Fold this protein.
Amino acid sequence: MLEIIVLPLLTMVTCKETRAAIIALHKNGFTGKDIVATKIAPKSTIYRFIKNFKERGSILVKKASGRPRKSSKRQDRLLKRIQLRDRSATSAELAQEWQQAGVSASARTVRRRLLEDGLVSRRAAKKPLLSKKNIRDRLIFCRKYSEWTAEDWGKVIFSDEAPFRLFGASGKRLVRRRKGERYHQSCVMPTVKHPDTIHVWGCFSSKGVGSLTILPKNTAMNKEWYQNTLQQQLLPTTQQQFGEEQCIFQHDGAPCHKAKVITKWLGDQNVEILGPWPGNSPDLNPIENLWSILKRRVDKQKPTNSDKLQEVIMKEWVAISQDLAQKLIESMPSRNAEVLKKKGQHCKY
């Protein structure tokens, strides 16, 4: 009789169904020993289920009481609205404002409620301030090139200037340390009041990195310097990477880039310009990502003086692979699409 009853029950896998099967056998007069012999569950589990059933008269698991929740769903929604009004408000400030609405809760409880709604505290992303004109220009640019494929963007040479500083000031550094090691020499990032800064100009395309030049000290970034840089650095790069094939040059709207003499010179050289480039739009320029990668690599070398810094910059620049450069160029269609989707606002790049 036991085998007939148990056979279909052995296929049950969930805890709830196993509990029901054990109690069903118990109600039919089978002893705990008989039920253990079926191997439907561990011995201790079977006897615990039977004991609980005898004490409570039910197979349902008793719900733990726990501490009562301090806020209702309506109050939780109010907290969410308060946070979304001011994203930078701290949990302590939110707790005070929530208390005015009748909810006495700690800052820790506030954080838990916000976490339930997917609102997590994170460092704010730093992005250039976008004016209405910037947003309009970004949309015009992205619509103009919305049909371009990665192959089309592969014909563009992107360029920009960038600063590099000594002692890791170019970027952030994370370290892993034990308790008490916060100020250990290997866990700190040295700083100086007036770190040496080196300015560079560089360009790249899907074919790899192009020329990189370091701006001499006490040299202004003016139209004379820029024209000389284009003559000495850009033209050799276009010849080396594209030969007689027509390519397109990108630069932003810096004053020295927009000078009439520069525009005329580029026209005389038959250099086609991408744009007009929208202001405050580093997220649309893949060379910004290249600078970030280069700065991390340079910082890892820990140069200690300007000469060493220049040497490391040049070394790490030529070490950048064509695959990396091509991947950055291939991201352009996605950048354009995301800016259009966000109606001209910042994209994730």
